[in-house]
Write a structure and sequence with these properties.
By secondary structure, the chain is of the alpha/beta class. About 35% of the residues lie in helices and about 10% in strands. The protein has an 8-stranded mixed sheet with strand order 6-5-4-3-2-1-7-8. It starts with about 20 loop residues before the first helix and ends in a 16-residue tail after the last helix.
């Protein structure tokens, strides 16, 4: 496959989504999470940014002991509202379609609703990644449902087991678990379709086996898919090498996710939490203003406080959108893998293992199928 220039015809880059490849269609579409699946895939083919993640603040009540975005003064670290408004206008001018609101927990900002409404009024789709705890307030859940029309909401519940949850998070485990579950019910009651809700699990060794299956199965029973991320050696994650799961444990968890969330699919996103169309069409703006390829990859390519978003994308599209991987996935074994139409491995895992954004994802070795 040859990479097209932005806006140029990209038929050679389109994955095989023909009726004969039903599995590819399922994972290609649903693994984007964006309800506008076709738009995400088209932006990917044109080497364009579909979604911008805005790390609006670092304050969060989730208390994840492995958080990649840790900060010494997280409660006060946030992008000023004026800065977010400027970013919204810049990314809209660049043709971006969606905003993924990140934290910390973006719902911890007092002005989150007004900023999300401004994004919506600009014609941008809002997606919200939250701990889920603020959604225990029905009024907040109703506001979230209103501003994410056409977008998705992700909550974050690693485990239904209070003992395991307490190991991985600060605070009272039972109280937090019940708040997140109540928040999910509030979203559903407010009219948010279950297909537009995600539960995000950061997969660690304590979750391996029956525990991760129980959690994925619980949400699948409600029609809610799982975003299965892998713990990375970044932020607080560097303090817990003992929580990094083994290859067989990762393979088992991936198999559960595929079987429950994508039944009938003959291919897998492998170790990624989303398919390559989401990752290859998304960039992140951190709370410091750095533009990174991914919220977990804390390596900036330009800063929106010093240079325009458009200029950053013009200069660093190659790295931010992983353009080399669109040619041949940068590895012989990837080019021959049956999962290649939707997968190129987790770029964050590759980066923190090798220092190279385009390197092999070492965890993919447990999933290789030719």
């Amino acid at each position: 496959m040859e990479c097209s220039q932005p806006g140029s015809p990209a038929s050679k880059q389109q994955p095989d989504l023909s009726p004969g490849r039903t599995g590819a269609g399922i994972v290609s579409a649903q693994g984007c999470f964006h309800p506008d699946h076709a738009g995400v895939i088209q932006y990917f083919a044109e080497n364009r940014v579909y979604s911008v993640q805005i790390e609006s603040c670092l304050s969060c009540s989730g208390g994840c002991r492995y958080c990649y975005a840790s900060a010494q003064d997280a409660s006060s670290a946030e992008i000023p509202a004026a800065g977010i408004r400027r970013i919204l206008h810049e990314v809209k001018a660049e043709g971006v379609r969606a905003i993924d609101w990140l934290g910390g927990d973006p719902l911890r900002r007092k002005d989150w609703y007004g900023l999300a409404r401004e994004a919506r009024d600009l014609g941008l789709i809002n997606n919200i990644w939250t701990s889920g705890i603020p959604l225990a307030d029905p009024a907040v859940a109703r506001q979230v449902t209103r501003v994410t029309f056409g977008g998705f909401v992700s909550v974050h519940l690693d485990s239904l087991d209070e003992g395991i949850y307490h190991l991985l998070h600060t605070g009272d485990a039972g109280t937090k678990i019940r708040a997140i579950l109540r928040g999910v019910e509030n979203l559903l009651a407010s009219g948010k379709p279950p297909g537009e809700i995600i539960n995000c699990i950061t997969f660690t060794r304590p979750l391996a086996g029956n525990d991760v299956e129980r959690t994925i199965r619980y949400f699948a029973g409600k029609g809610i898919k799982t975003c299965l991320t892998q713990i990375c050696r970044a932020g607080l994650g560097t303090d817990h090498p003992e929580w990094v799961p083994s290859g067989p444990q990762i393979r088992h968890a991936i198999g559960i996710r595929d079987r429950l969330d994508y039944p009938g699919s003959d291919i897998s996103m492998s170790t990624m939490d989303t398919n390559k169309f989401y990752c290859g069409g998304t960039v992140c703006i951190t709370v410091e203003g750095d533009v990174t390829p991914c919220s977990v990859i804390r390596r900036g390519f330009g800063n929106v406080n010093r240079i325009t978003f458009r200029e950053i994308i013009r200069r660093h599209r190659h790295e931010l959108l992983f353009l080399p991987l669109r040619k041949n996935n940068n590895a012989e074994r990837c080019s021959s893998c049956r999962n290649q139409p939707v997968c190129w491995g987790c770029r964050a895992t590759a980066y923190y293992t090798t220092g190279d954004l385009m390197a092999d994802d070492p965890n993919c070795r447990v999933r290789r199928r030719s």
